[in-house]
Every structure is written in C-alpha cells, then in structure tokens.
Design brief:
Number of domains: 1
Shape: elongated
Distance between the termini: 90 Å
Helix content: 10-25%
Number of strands: 14
Largest sheet: 7 strands, antiparallel
Order of helices and strands: HEEEEEEEHEEEHEEEE
Number of helices: 3
Strand content: 25-35%
Oligomer: single chain
Structural class: alpha+beta
Length: about 280
C-alpha cells in the first residue's frame, strides 16, 4: 500500500479557515429574529341577502247587479295571495255596462326590488261561446277580448265618491294617447274619453304587457318596491268595463288571461330585467 502524503501549507490553511467563517456567517442569517405580533378575527360569516315578493288581489268595487267576481288561490291558506301560487279571478254573466276594479297589491320583504308584470301569451285566449242571437262573426276567437276595455290606475281617492270615480292617474300602458289622465272619465264605445284618453281593450293590453312592463312612476323611473324612498308596497288598480253600446256578438264569449309578477333586487342592478 502506498502512503499518501497531504501537504498543508500556510496558504491552504488560511483559505480553509476563511471557508469555515463564511459558512458560519450564513448560518447566522438564518437564525436572526425580528419583532413580530399576530392578531386574529374569529367566527366571521357572510350571509346572502333575501328578497321575497308576495302579490295579492282583491275586488275593490263593481257595478250594481254584477255577480261577485270570485278570487281564488291554489293555496287554501291564502285565498287571494300568490306566493308561488296561482290566483284565479272568475267573473260570470258580464253584460254591457258592467264594470269591476281589481286591486293588485305587491309587497317585497328583505331587500328593495323592481317588479315586472307580464301577460303570459300561452295562457291568453278568447273563446267563442254559444250565442242565442244571430251575430256577424261566429268564428274563433271570441269577441269579448276586443270589446272589453281594461285600464291600469295608480291610485284612488276615497273622497271622490264611489265606484270608478275614485280612480286616479291613468297609466300610459293602457292609454293609446299617453295622457296620464288625472281621474276617470267615461269612454265611448271605442274607449275614447272627453279628455282625450283612449282606453285599451283587453286584447290590446295583453299585447302591451306581452314582453313585460316594469312598474314605474309617471316619469318612467322604475319603482323601488320595499324601499323607504319609494314605497314599502305598491297598489295598482285594474278596471274592466264593457261599454253599454256593445252588441250581441259578445254573448256567451269568455276570455282567459294570466299575469306573472317577477322581482329583481335594486342594488347593483342598473338595468333591471335586461337579462344581464
């Protein structure tokens, strides 16, 4: 076996000591301490907001002699309230000159919301009924939807007497001439009044609400239902009237329609019901 000799010169020794010194300095950097503190916030939670709309309808008034319109709901505990349920309003034996007013009451709890009303196309129909008298047009659809006038009003004045005279502020959606008539006026057979308003028929109102109408004030600004600044709840009054001059063609006919109410939150919603 050959002996190996290792020479350790002064130069090599100093270099080795220097290497050890650098290694020690590196270890010192890893163990240096800084002042520190830790605080914690415990039990945090986020809760999603809620929005709940309830719609009810009542018969506000009707013409003398008209059988009481029947308001019924699929929920036995709330005969006139739609909270995820359907409401059916049935009126029988409507004759020329008859009228009635429905009070649609919309409430929103939890957060303010915008409300859109839509007439559901697939549920709208005019049925041609049996007529004991001769009529000029016996083909379907029936004639009642084209003869029955319907208008939406924003408020009532209980000091203005009784009946239709209490109605105030005609909504432009049911006025061909956009007059915003301040109070009810009796229309002629074509729905035209002395003040220049032109009431819509039920067929025309259905077409107007077919794509949805957002509840708005006279300036066109959507109403924030449930908001302190606007109103905690909203009442809209729908008048149905069959002009006295309507002839025999409407006898036996019936009309069926559905109104759907949709709500969307106000906050962070600059363009309600746009699908955005």
């Amino acid at each position: 076996m050959t002996d190996k000799r290792y020479e350790l010169t002064r130069r090599k020794l100093l270099a080795g000591v220097g290497g050890v010194g650098l290694a020690s300095a590196g270890a010192g950097l890893g163990t240096t301490a800084y002042l520190n503190d830790t605080e914690s916030f415990e039990g945090n939670s986020l809760t999603a907001g809620a929005l709940n709309m309830v719609v009810s309808v009542d018969v506000l008034d009707k013409s003398p002699g008209l059988p009481d319109p029947v308001v019924d709901s699929t929920d036995e505990d709330a005969d006139d309230t739609a909270d995820g349920n359907e409401i059916t309003v049935t009126v029988d034996d409507v004759k020329p000159g008859d009228w009635f007013v429905l009070d649609w009451h919309v409430e929103i709890d939890g957060n303010p919301g915008y409300v859109q009303v839509t007439s559901v196309d697939e549920d709208y129909s005019n049925a041609e009924g049996d007529n004991p008298e001769a009529e000029t047009d016996t083909s379907a659809p029936g004639d009642l939807g084209a003869a029955l006038l319907t208008t939406i009003w924003g408020s009532t004045d209980t000091t203005a007497g009784s009946g239709r005279q209490q109605l105030q502020v005609l909504d432009e959606t049911t006025d061909h001439n956009d007059t915003w008539l301040s109070g009810y006026e009796t229309p002629d057979l074509d729905g035209v009044t002395a003040g220049g308003a032109h009431y819509t028929t039920l067929d025309e109102a259905h077409a107007e609400y077919l794509d949805g109408v957002v509840l708005s004030d006279p300036s066109g600004t959507p109403i924030e239902v449930g908001s302190v600044s606007d109103s905690a709840d909203v009442h809209s009054y729908q008048l149905f009237e069959l002009p006295p001059g309507v002839g025999n063609d409407v006898q036996g006919d019936s009309v069926t329609f559905t109104l759907r109410f949709d709500a969307e939150q106000v906050r962070n919603n600059d363009d309600p019901f746009s699908g955005a």
